[in-house]
Specification:
Helix content is about 65%, strand content about 10%. A two-stranded antiparallel sheet has the order 1-2. The chain has one domain. The mean pLDDT is about 80. It is mainly alpha-helical. The longest helix has 27 residues. The chain is built from 2 helices and 2 strands.
Length: about 70
C-alpha cells in the first residue's frame, strides 16, 4: 500500500491509512473468527490468511489488466 502524505482541509499533513475500510473490516472479521476458534494463535492465523487474500487480489487484478490489453 502507498502511504503518501495527504493534506487535510486545515492544511495539516497526515499519512493515508495502510488499509482501505473494506480491508480493515475483512481483517477484523477474520481475526474475530480465529479468536473464537483458538485465542492463542489468532493473530498469526489472521496474518497468514490476510497475506494470502491480498496476493489473490493482486493476481485477479493482474489478470483483469491482461484481459483488457
Amino acid at each position: 500500500m502507498n502511504r503518501e502524505v495527504k493534506c487535510t482541509s486545515k492544511g495539516k499533513r497526515r499519512l493515508k491509512p495502510l488499509l482501505t475500510p473494506r480491508e480493515q473490516t475483512l481483517y477484523r472479521n477474520r481475526f474475530n473468527y480465529f479468536k473464537r476458534i483458538d485465542r492463542e494463535n489468532a493473530l498469526d492465523r489472521t496474518l497468514k490468511w490476510f497475506e494470502a487474500w491480498l496476493s489473490l487480489q493482486d493476481m485477479s487484478l493482474q489478470k483483469t489488466i491482461e484481459r483488457r490489453f
